[in-house]
## 1
Amino acid sequence: MSEESKDRSKELIQLMMKHQRRIFAYIYTLVPSRSDAEDILQETSLTICEKFNDFKQGTNFYSWACQIAYWKIRAARKKYATSKVIFNQEVLDLIAVTQFKVEEELDHRHYALSECLKKLNDRDRRMILTRYESGKNVSAAAHVCGRTVQGAYKALNRIRKVLFDCVTFELSIEQAH
């Protein structure tokens, strides 16, 4: 195996690991069940591997992979034709486009939020991250930051407002460019 081929294989693995959950979410919004989505993800993954040489480096891998998934979903629709509820092709197309746009917007919001979290002072950042950590609550956040529960509620409301305003501002700057 040549060095270039090894690098390309490594790139494929990294891209698949990075985007597989999102590709699955995209598929799952367009098919009737989780097991169907898992089957289509497998088929999509195989096709991605087979056609990876056609992928142009520097372009959007997620978009490319979702396009492959979309065609796999269309091919699988014959199987779903006997189920009680099936969308016509126009509805499927609309859902696919809408889901992709929503996911792009969420990616922008997630990035803006991560940037805004960096701007918080250490105590506020620790409090908000503790509060939204799995299994944690306001009492845990109060304890970590040395506040009363009532003080934590007030601080969390203030921090949420600051983050909301910051994310809104960051997104408006992004849209202006």
Note: The radius of gyration is 21 Å.
## 2
Amino acid sequence: MQSHEIDYKIIGRDVQLVEVELDPKETVIAEAGAMLYMEDGIGFESKMGDGSNPGAGFFDKLLSAGSRLITGESLFLTHFTNQGYGKKHVAFSAPYPGTIIPVDLRQMGGTIIVQKDAFLCAALGTKITMRFNKKIGSGLFGGEGFILQQLSGDGKAFIHAGGTVIERRLNNEILRVDTGCVVGFEQSIDFDIQQAGNLRSMVFGGEGLFLATLRGTGRVWLQSMPIRKLIHQLSSFGTNSRKEGGGGVLNNIFQ
């Protein structure tokens, strides 16, 4: 199925949203709960599946939905369609502060691989499938790198990342990254999880036991503040505040 042609603009800097412009009968699909606002004339419907294969039977749709559950995503995707006259707009925001990355799948050879929670929205016709990392290291220790999502098609898709996004272009190179900081990569890139240094570095280095290894030629997207690190920092802040008598840092500020 050929993807719908959609226009868009990214709004904001540190906490971004994407506003999609739909012509009559055009549709954009999105994660459940991602919609921020929509104009009158846009209808929406939650469906099992991404709609990339209109002829798919119930069993195929159920299988696709089940794979989304394994990745930790919602069972349904929401389809937003311009049912009115003239151009209409619908906007989507990420579930936590960060950056939205627009991707033209046609320019990426039709496919990119992203972390399981990176997908935000895409033009109807984009196929979203689960992809297991086959490397044994990823399966046993990788955590965030074991289950990935594959976005395929010839239209525009939008993925989100925590904090600042860094795009790296590898030319037959190797790049080692914190496992949670990998947002996505082109299918020409080989992805694996490997042990991080010697035993002393693993225990005392503070970089974790394993690192993601990206190898090959192609584009890679990294995030400076994955949600795991953000939650850890907030938890540490809350723990320190309780130790300081409930007010913690705030008490020091207002004294």
Note: Residues 231 and 237 are 10 Å apart (CA to CA).
## 3
Amino acid sequence: MPIKGGGFSRKSQASSDVPDSSMADIAFLLLIFFMVTTVFQKDRDRPIIWPEAEATQKIDEKLKNILNIWVQRDGSIFINDRPYAMGEVSSVVAPLYAASDRALVISIRSDREVQYNVIDLLQKQLVAAGVVRVVFATELEQRMQRERR
């Protein structure tokens, strides 16, 4: 007749605690993983010929407070690398300007060959959006930024 249980007993019981000795290691590994795999969106440069200027001024604003509006030679407008029609500019810029607590600076980056009436319409759209601070990017400004890098 076999002996039930065999006469052996366990010396240790299974622990109900979750082992947390490697939690910090896992947290740092996850942090490093997300830092390495995160991609920050960068504005794409548009193929435009910059307008010339005799003098320029550096904008002392954080990059997050500058909204670049690109105007190409054919009059097409890009905001945050997305194309928009002229009539949509006011409805796109107004919420962004309000969300920034009126700290947003609009940088118009247009081609030298863009007709003046397109820039005038763009300025009217920005006025309708309630924008107060508008700057025009020039070739001299671009040259100064390249020299700083």
Note: The chain has a mean pLDDT of 78.
